[in-house]
Records
---
Amino acid sequence: MKQLLLPLWAYRYFILSSVKTELRSRFARSKFGGLWMILHPLAQVLVYALILSQIMVAKLPNVSTEYAYPIYILAGVVGWTLFSEVLGRCLTVFIDNGNLLKKCLFLSWHCH
């Protein structure tokens, strides 16, 4: 386990700066910036909760509070959004940053 964590520790500044650069470039042209990451799922939940709980009268079994269904939907939407964003970005991150990866000297380690 130590052999897997040492390269991460050695390149921690590169990793942190890459994450900062990714977030800055992702929201550079957005009017709301990083706030959009929070507003978009909340807007989706608001629409789903309004339509499903008010118009279609969907409720959770054995729960009497009116806020249970929107919280239930929020958990699902936020979880799915996080999963899909991470998976989608993982597919392209190495291709998009290939020029940076070519400049790094990676330590090789062997699994025993």
---
Amino acid sequence: MTDLQDERFDRRSIPPDVIEEPWTGPDGWEFRELDWPQSVQPGAPRGSVLFMTGRADFYEKYLETFHDFHVQGWNVTSVDWRGQGGSGRCGPHPHVGHIDDFATWVADLVAFFDQWRVSHAGPHVLIGHSMGGHLVLRAMTEQRIHPDAAILSAPMLAPAGGGMPEWTAQGIAKFMCAIGRGERRAWKPIENPLEPYVPRQALLTHDAERYSDEFFWFRERPFVRLGPGSWRWVERAYASTRLLRDRQKLTRMDVPVLVLATATDELVDHATIERAARLLPKAEMKLFGPESAHEIFREVDAVRNAALRSCFAFLDRVAPRR
């Protein structure tokens, strides 16, 4: 494969054979689901991929990556996390990302995965980006889901501290929750929501056109927009990432894992990712440097192609067609 990009693919429209529909969780919460099945043709599909996005994400941002896997023969599914994208909101402000506890998201993932695995052909592969990678790994290390393989893209195994000790950051968040500000935003928005802001782009991707796709979808589907996390989100993020430092849980988790990471990532702590990858018994890493920012699947073509080749080669080894 010399070039994985398909110039004909339109990142700003939903393909006609994609199914968008609600999924109702065990507690009655309505989630937004995307399903992109393989066309009816002789032979079985390559398998099925479940892609879980990051904090404040929505599945439209990753249509191109869904396409990359779909053309390789995979069924592709994604579902917006509770409280973001098209899956409602958990707090009073529609643009603040709030959650009571990350355990809620883990339970949602487990419930969805169990139904998805029954209804979709194997092998079954989980892909998680950033916060999604954190939650996928947490569910696997807690032995609550058992995919055939997993791919973690820039997983949020610890937030980048910005020079502040972790205990200090969590302590501030705890204090803000204690004085009744748990549902309020923990930081100020850094941009007009409909106008790309270059400093933010530098944290996410070097590809200006792919970055601007996000703002197209904000205009096309305003309900997907989400801004800063709440103080409760911050406090619970630190508590949840600490659970992923349990050495015994990591060393017992035997699902094959490919970790895509960026050594210069400014949103998640790279050293924590490397430590976890060394402890996972069936993990391997594809490491990028300054050529890639946080959103590896939305980077420039050279980075995306390298990441995708690593993914497909990894899956051919550990999750062959059944």
---
Amino acid sequence: MPETNRIEYKRELSEGLEKEVVAFLNYREGGIIYIGIDKEGKTVGVKDADEDQLKIKDRLKNNIRPSALGLFDIVSEERDGKEILKIIVASGSEKPYHLKKYGMSEKGCFIRLGSAAEPMPQKMIDELFASRTRNSIGIIKAHRQELNFEQLHIYYQEKQKPLNKQFRKNLELTTTNGDLNYAAYLLADENNVSVKVAKYKGETRVDLIESNEYGYCSLIKATKSVLDKINLENRTITQITSKERKEQRLWNAISLREAIVNAFVHNNYTREIAPKFEIFKDRIEITSAGYLPDGLSKSEFFEGYSIPRNKELMRVYKDLDLVEQLGSGIPRILEHYDKDCFHFSDNFLRMVLPSAESVYATEQLHSKYPASIPQVTAQDTEHVNEQVTEQVKNLLSVMDKAYSRKELMEKLQLTHREHFRAAYIQKAIELGLVELTLPDKPKSSKQQYRLTEKGKKARKG
């Protein structure tokens, strides 16, 4: 694979590394640098991967400003039987990044153009600096300065990474004036951040049966508490078909963990709102505050490009192995769930993960009510009309031909996929008013829905 706008090869660890990293930090998509691969893409390997990793981390920490900590990840990989290093660089939110030695000048600032790192024009430097995000948890001074970090010390000790006396500075928990910042407040033993996990009896918020609160402590402790609680709720179910007996958990454990951790790490805490977790009969909803970070589109979000909203938290979560590597969370979730599970608004991002029980029920329903054209009598139509809900009436009113699920939801101005499935399409299929165009392939991406003869009669009536 040749070098691209997001891939850079280096035969060995050289003096130009910081320049390449700065260019990717300033680039809207970030990028990846491989050490141990030459410009032709041939693997040559590195002699001492562990030593090189330490050198890289030290150089990037000390030679780039603003701090790049939490915005890069170093991974050792094997290719063609040789060890190489992979440096994953996220797009930063405090552009322009520059070489400390040269400051914010054309000699210190670089941007990725094609497959090269080019000097950034002074006009662009000035524009980026003028629009730099200043309202971040690393810059905001904590309203309480008497904070303790015993829990954080314990978690780092468990990972055999004991914190020294300079940990506040090393973990970027202070402002430029030396005061503890809002990131420190979130990671302290005590704070006023309340994290709630709610459980409902049915598919709506009407019947709350359990409410748990895990806040007022280090965000790391709150994260682990939520992970433990939802892991208990993620029970194993058995599905018996004519062919096999299948056991699986309500939600894919890896995707669920990624979704929970992502909600904590990327939540917009400057609005003093914590992520929220809600368990329903047919789904789990995970809601975090804040839209996508500036400069990140939805398509880039789904492709795994990363612009960490809270680089200080990202760095700590990575140290404690709660995050595997930059940009891996969303692709892991998408291995098991559709993009439609992500709901974006101006102020929030919500992940709606359907339970295996609800998916299985839908598949059973599709097999129970295959596409057919039944004979319709006046008596049948009258009986059906008595059972048609307002939701089904609305559905029938917009169906003048075959439509996909997405098209129908857009016509009805609905955003909640599971609500549409249960209250609209499933009910209409049960009544024999709507049928699948591909009944033998209920989960096909080309699946559409159309009115049956009975549905056409009901629509006219």
